[in-house]
Amino acid sequence: MVEVRIENLVKTFGETVALRGVNLHIKHGELFTLLGPSGCGKSTTLRAIAGLDYPDSGHIYFGDEDVTYQHPSKRGAVLVFQNYALWPHMTVFDNVAYGLKLRKAPKEEIEKKVKWALELVKLKGFEDRYPTQLSGGQQQRVAIARALVVEPRVLLLDEPLSNLDAKLRLEMRSEIRRIQRELGITVIYVTHDQEEAMAISDRIAVMNVGTVEQVGTPKEIYETP
Ligand code: ADP
Ligand code: ADP
C-alpha cells in the first residue's frame, strides 16, 4: 500500500487531447474514485497509473518513487479490467496462479497464496472450475483474486460493476469495500455512476474533458451546489 501522486498528466491520441494536465493526490489505504462521463479520461488515467500506456508529459509517483515510465510488472499496480479478462481455457486456480508462475514462485508458495486469495474473495472450493462455469459476480471475484495474489501496492478497478445485474452490483460493491478495508490497500476505482461513487468511495475526483474539476469526500461532493 502506497500513496499515489499524479502531477500534470497530459496524454493525446492524434487530435484528441484525452488528459489536459491531471493532478491527483491519493492517500495510502484509501478507496479513491475517478468519476465522470464517458470520454472524460478516466480509463486513460488508470492505464497510465498501471503503466499500460505512457503519458506525453507529467509524472506519476508511488510514494517517493517516480514510476511514470516504469514497466507495468515492476511498479506493482494491477488493473482489473471491466470484462475481467479471465483465460477461458484455464481453471480458477490457474487463472489466479498465473502472475506467480510468471514470477517463477515456488510451487508451495503458489499454492499457499492462491488459497489465501480465493479465501479472501470467498471462492474456496472453486479451484477446479472454468470461468464459463461461474456467474458474473464469481468471475469478478476470480479477477480480483488474480490481481491481489501478487500483492500489488495499488489495485486499479475500471468500471468493475458495469457487467453485473442490479443485485450483484450491490453485493460486489460491499465485497470490494470489505476486501479493501481488510487489506488496507490503496484502490483507485473508475465509474461514471454517481450513486455508486458516493456509496463506495473515501474520496472522489470529478473529471470532465480531461481535467479534474473537484476532489472531495462523498459528503463534500454532494453538498457542493
Ligand atoms: P473514459 O474512461 O472517461 O470513458 P477514456 O480515457 O477512455 O475516457 O478516453 C478519453 C478520450 O481519449 C476519449 O475522447 C477517447 O475517445 C480518447 N481515447 C482513449 N483511448 C484512445 C486511443 N487508444 N486512441 C484514440 N483515442 C483514444
Ligand atoms: P472504457 O469503457 O473503460 O472507457 P473503452 O471501451 O472506451 O474503455 O475503450 C477500450 C479500449 O479502447 C481502451 O484501451 C481505450 O484506450 C481504447 N479506446 C478508447 N477510445 C478509443 C478511440 N476513440 N480510438 C481508439 N481506441 C480507443
UniProtKB/TrEMBL annotation:
Keyword Translocase: yes
One GO term describing the cellular component: ATP-binding cassette (ABC) transporter complex
The entry's keywords: ATP-binding, Cell membrane, Membrane, Molybdenum, Nucleotide-binding, Translocase, Transport
Domain ABC transporter residue range list: 4-225
Job of this protein: Part of the ABC transporter complex WtpABC involved in molybdate/tungstate import. Responsible for energy coupling to the transport system.
SUBUNIT field: The complex is composed of two ATP-binding proteins (WtpC), two transmembrane proteins (WtpB) and a solute-binding protein (WtpA).
Superkingdom in the source lineage: Archaea
Topological category with respect to the lipid bilayer: Peripheral membrane protein
EC number: 7.3.2.6
Keyword Aminoacyl-tRNA synthetase: no
Record-given protein name: Molybdate/tungstate import ATP-binding protein WtpC
Subcellular location: Cell membrane
Catalytic activity: tungstate(in) + ATP + H2O = tungstate(out) + ADP + phosphate + H(+)
One Gene Ontology term of the molecular function aspect: ATP hydrolysis activity
Provenance organism: Thermococcus waiotapuensis
Major localization class: membrane
Enzyme's top EC category: translocase
UniProt similarity note: Belongs to the ABC transporter superfamily. Sulfate/tungstate importer (TC 3.A.1.6) family.
